[in-house]
């Protein structure tokens, strides 16, 4: 069996499992990398040792533990699929672990920077800027993923109850609250929204069809420049900002988990590190008996 056959088999299985196009494309890229580093040897000829060597080569090429862990998961899934279909007898990924990588915290805007970004008054207000403001308010107000934002239909928004129905990973639905300012921005956008006949998407482009994720990223990057932001702002940064700011105020990790749509609490717990950093900065700045400056604490964190 060659790699094309293996990939086609695995992709068909992913379709049956309801995996998104983006997820399937990511799996394909990771498996193609395995084929490349093993010199296109037939997939069923690879051994446990071959998998370890493949990881070592990719690690030496600059990939970190997080990327390699994702790749290994894709490879393992491929072989599990082949075994289920009687096309392979063993999974060569069994017992293989990727190298560990450093703990990476998500980037989040300070509260005042987020407010400045969203409260900025533009020199010219147009239909597009009305739409953009509604999108960015919604990302920050409800902590949506970019793909969740692009999937929204008009009927998913309940302005009266201030709720949004979101289709998350694995097509799991959840209801999230809609902030007052986001609701106001959405109401204005809905009054100006134009769409081709039959288009149900909440956010549409100039042609009246559903707006894509890449377009949203570009509009937000442009918005951050126009409003004087000192950093590049991405949709995921607004989601991280939502989570960290909410946790700073409430300390309710379970509630934040539900709002973000995380399946596991451990995924949400990374924001407790962000919250501690915020508290440490307040202490270092305000307490008269603080033993360390903020710089010294940062240096300690980086060296640990």
Specify the biggest β-sheet. Answer: 3 strands, antiparallel
Distance between the termini: 47 Å
Instruction: Name the beta content range.
Output: under 5%
Structural shape:
elongated
Percent helix: 55-70%
How many whole angstroms does the radius of gyration measure? 23 Å
What average pLDDT do the residues reach?
A: 82
CATH topology of the domain at 111-231: hpI Integrase, Chain A
List how many beta strands DSSP finds. 3
Task: Say which CATH homologous superfamily of the domain at 111-231 is assigned.
Answer: Intergrase catalytic core
CATH class of the domain at 111-231: Mainly Alpha
Number of helices: 14
CATH architecture of the domain at 111-231: Orthogonal Bundle
User: What order do the SSEs take from the amino end to the carboxyl end, as H and E?
Assistant: HHHHHHHEEEHHHHHHH
Helical/strand content category: mainly alpha
- Uncertain runs with pLDDT below 50, 5 residues or more? 274-280, 291-304
| Spatial strand order of the main sheet | 1-2-3
What characteristics describe this protein?
single chain, 304 residues, mainly alpha, DNA polymerase, domain 1, hpI Integrase, Chain A, three-stranded antiparallel β-sheet, 14 helices, 3 strands, 58% helix, Integrase_recombinase_N, chromosome partition, cell division, cell cycle, DNA recombination
């Amino acid at each position: 069996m060659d790699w094309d056959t293996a990939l086609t088999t695995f992709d068909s299985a992913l379709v049956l499992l309801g995996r998104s196009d983006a997820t399937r494309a990511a799996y394909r890229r990771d498996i193609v990398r395995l084929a490349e580093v093993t010199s296109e040897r037939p997939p069923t000829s690879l051994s446990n040792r071959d998998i370890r060597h493949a990881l070592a080569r990719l690690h030496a090429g600059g990939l970190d533990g997080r990327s390699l862990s994702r790749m290994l998961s894709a490879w393992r899934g491929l072989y599990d699929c082949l075994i289920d279909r009687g096309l392979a007898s063993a999974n060569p990924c069994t017992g293989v672990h990727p190298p560990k990588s450093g703990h990476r915290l998500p980037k989040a805007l300070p509260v005042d920077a987020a407010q400045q970004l969203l409260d900025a008054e533009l020199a010219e207000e147009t239909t597009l800027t009305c739409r953009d403001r509604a999108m960015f308010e919604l990302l920050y107000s409800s902590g949506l993923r970019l793909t969740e934002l692009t999937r929204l239909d008009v009927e998913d928004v309940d302005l009266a109850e201030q709720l949004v129905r979101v289709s998350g990973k694995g097509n799991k639905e959840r209801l999230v609250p809609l902030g007052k300012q986001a609701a106001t921005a959405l109401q204005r956008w809905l009054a100006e929204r134009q769409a081709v006949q039959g288009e149900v998407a909440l956010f549409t482009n100039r042609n009246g069809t559903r707006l894509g994720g890449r377009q949203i990223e570009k509009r937000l990057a442009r918005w951050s420049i126009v409003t004087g932001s000192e950093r590049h702002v991405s949709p995921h940064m607004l989601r991280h900002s939502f989570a960290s700011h909410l946790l700073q105020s409430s300390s309710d990790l379970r509630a934040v988990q539900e709002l973000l749509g995380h399946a596991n609490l451990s995924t949400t717990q990374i924001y407790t590190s962000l919250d501690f950093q915020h508290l440490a900065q307040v202490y270092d700045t305000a307490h008269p008996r603080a033993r360390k400056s903020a710089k010294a604490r940062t240096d300690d964190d980086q060296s640990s």
